[in-house]
């Protein structure tokens, strides 16, 4: 009852505040509350098109009404409450920076707004459209609304589209692009599509040497006198087009300036050093001329191609040492159409030192922070090699009754070296816009789990990153080595292993040695904002010690465990897949889904995946209604001897992982987005293990999928997305009830208090 009273009090306060914004108006003044568009003849537009047109036409109405959140004109309220004659002070600052003066109904220009809307409809094929605007004062309202009644009339469609028919170079090139035209017979007339078609033709012509051609040199003539509401469209080159626009230009000389500054006013061609097909002007010898052989994609004698030129600019930046690239073309021989190309590269500071502090919070009640210091050299050996050396230290402390006291401390170092080229006898197909890289990374991390154990972790990898196309990314590590050993284990932890007989506890501190190749492929077109449906796919395959195990005939089950330098090596094959699908539902709203499937197959010298390679589930980017890494494996439920005594539970891990997520993301207002979600998944061991009943993968795996539902808010702060999620478990295979959680009732405070999991995170979960 108290909560209801509190809610009513807040609601009444908001209502009063919303209404109070009109009491400062002068007599006869009315507040403008917005525009509404109504369609009087719905037979000429589909329901979906009419909805889109309503939003588009309403956005053209001026002025824009006062900003509101949940009906509260908060900026107008601030303006009224802080109004002052002073030019300084807090009130003046709030009034001018956060306040918003009233938008009055008297400022509405119905005729102008109706005209703008009419032009938009005509640009979208409705040549016979009519719009009538009026103002309406709704009953009980203190404001005025503008209402525009629309009669679109029939839409006009293309009967035929005709491209230039002359045989000169330019007309022939434009006609050759017609197969990829955005204009299709039968489509509705649309001015926006016509403008984009001019840009498309210009882009294609730039790939065929027409350096001076521009979209403005094209004219689209429309004949709308055709019967049955049809039009004929003729694509033509304007007669006023300059002669140079019809010439096909070729490349003569190419010059690269690796150390350009604004003080350089001359081209210094007398100091040019020729390297293969381009010239380098670098009197200080800051980089070797060979650095640019993968960046300069144009060649002397080539026909000018803007696409290759643009790719060259991207590659110059991707080389690493350069922060800015300026380009010039010089028309050197107008009579024979040749260009000289100049690339002016500004070097970024070669060495830098950066520090970063990161705060974090996890659903497992850990609060932590990490401090990083990174040294970077962007041109280590004067060939664009990027060397980085990162030192870090972190601490994570756990609050609450769950695992209370077992804090985690880490520190380490991560050296890495990247070459802007492939150091390989095998040539990989790469997209011209991107520079491939050879990457060497190493790291050492010391982990101290307070009162339990300490671990030393070493890793090193050598491999390649390259993009065969804009949406595809490949990573191949020829060798990926990881070694983890337990430096110190407390008696408390050893007692936990002995008392609980839980093999997972022992598995955490087992020495691990893995080495072998891995390959990952990513397809991602989610950055294409114009698509209704977008996809993300990541596939990764890795293996460890396959050849060594074959040579040594390693077989743990047969009593033939093998070691390297005194440590047993791990053998496994691991496959990981992740698919994301996004469907745009409307302006700012979308449906997001994800499916993850991972399988690890230990063999030979291993009966279970090493702990560092196992799968985990649960937490803010996984099943959000469960604590991080607290699910599974399978239907295994820790008995009292595990949960009692030491009060310590290990992070649950497995050899197999299946997870599915679905999330509805509506745009609410301003920078705030909402989320309704459901998650399902679990992890399993590949083979049954003693003292872990129900942990192995079997035919009943679907019944062992834990499920949660929840809601959340996202705050889009431009630089980052701040995310809050509230997750509720609704099915838990490993619970004492082995199924539906007892007493599921979202209205019950006792249920919410004991089951809700709050997640605070940065970025979307997927």
From TrEMBL:
Its main location: membrane. The keyword Cell membrane does not apply. The keyword Magnesium does not apply. Keywords: Cell outer membrane, Membrane, Signal, Transmembrane. It comes from the Bacteria. Residues 363-733 form the Bacterial surface antigen (D15) domain. It holds the Pfam family Omp85. It is found in: Membrane. PANTHER family: SORTING AND ASSEMBLY MACHINERY SAMM50 PROTEIN FAMILY MEMBER, TRANSLOCATION AND ASSEMBLY MODULE SUBUNIT TAMA. This is BamA/TamA family outer membrane protein. The lineage of its organism: Bacteria, Pseudomonadati, Bacteroidota, Sphingobacteriia, Sphingobacteriales.
